Amino acid sequence: MNAAPGALVARRVEALAPEELPAFLYDLPALRTHAAAVRAALPARVELYYAAKANPEPALLTALRPYVDGYEVSSGGEAAHVGAAVPGAPTAFGGPGKTPAEIAAALAAGVHRWHVESVHELRLLAASGEAVDVLLRANLPVAEGRLDGVALAMGGRPSPFGMDPAGVEECLRLLDSPGSGGLRLRGIHAHLASGLDAAGQLALTERIVDYTAGLGLAEANVGGGMAVDYADPGRRFDWTAYGTGLEKLLDRHPGLRLRIEPGRSLTAYCGWYATEVLDLKHSHGEDFAVVRGGTHHLRTPATRGHAQPFAVLPSEHWPHPWERPTAAGPAVTLSGQLCTPKDVLAARVPAAGLRAGDRVVFAMAGAYAWNISHHEFLMHPHPGFHFLDG
Ligand SMILES: *Cc1c(COP(=O)(O)O)cnc(C)c1O
């Protein structure tokens, strides 16, 4: 597993003082290169939106702007934030439980596409009297086995997201009636799974597109969820295979407007969480490296139950006259400063010879990392943030 940062990140980590750790570092040139490759792998006709909830840092939203057609937002807060960070960029507003105040704010902000999650929500939107473009979010049944083994399934099973086909049909009847308030029905939205490889994603896309076409609609947003493999940072979602498959799909649906809205697979790789080993302890036959910070900054490994990939940047600086605490065995558990056994960033991973004072840089910390973490728990200082541009 190659989790080593590039020179831009490594040099900055080495230049930081211990008190400046932990820190999040974002490799913006790497983000641009990755986003450009994703864009290039997709047919020109496919619209690429970035799901802002994966990481809404303004510097990332801005860096992505040349490569994306717009942004997917999932709250009134995100709508306002994205509107301020990338003014004028098209936005699609999704998410269950939109409040009347959020709806009013998003209407004022000029949201480009509304992802309607329920019949009730459609009625609320129609009551606003605004003529806006809507996609109906469908929770489609998915063929048995199609979603096996994926990280998180948002649909294809009972869920609070979107509507069953019966709900979609009720919306269609409403939209056909005089009470529809001028809402413009554009098509279908579906975000059914997370963690699919290119073949799985393509199968799901075909399912959603067939459903959309079957309703006589000409626009489909097939969501995000492209797989990110935390066990192997070098193994990326096969955008070329997915793009080739989409090309064939579009050949069969020449009038279709197709949109995707990935989050994690765009920004996970550009973020790094750098820290240092504070202490190295031997406990009942196992080694524990306690690092500055922890899962209150980088919650990703705790929520997903994986070992966050990392690289060690050894430091020869040891200011104390006593022996440097050092890992005794080949495997070490990297834990944080929180007083809970759940504060584990990587359990029993190979790190022979790891010492107190060595620096550790966790990879793939650019999505669902800082912004999903419980920062205030135990009142440790917040990390630094560095947006590196080459
Ligand atoms: C979270 C979310 C996404 C992005 O999912 P990723 O797994 O980050 O690609 C896209 N669409 C919707 C509706 C979402 O809720």
UniProtKB/TrEMBL annotation:
Coiled coil: none
Cofactor: pyridoxal 5'-phosphate
Leader sequence segment: none
Gene3D superfamilies linked to this entry: Alanine racemase (3.20.20.10), Lyase, Ornithine Decarboxylase, Chain A, domain 1 (2.40.37.10)
Keyword ATP-binding: no
Highest taxon above the source species: Bacteria
InterPro entries the record matches: Ala_racemase/Decarboxylase_C, De-COase2_N, Orn/DAP/Arg_de-COase, PLP-binding_barrel
Alphabetized Pfam families for the sequence: Orn_Arg_deC_N
Residue ranges annotated for the Orn/DAP/Arg decarboxylase 2 N-terminal domain, each copy included: 32-268
CDD domains the record matches: PLPDE_III_PvsE_like
UniProt keyword list: Pyridoxal phosphate
Protein species of origin: Kitasatospora arboriphila
Protein name (database record): Type III PLP-dependent enzyme
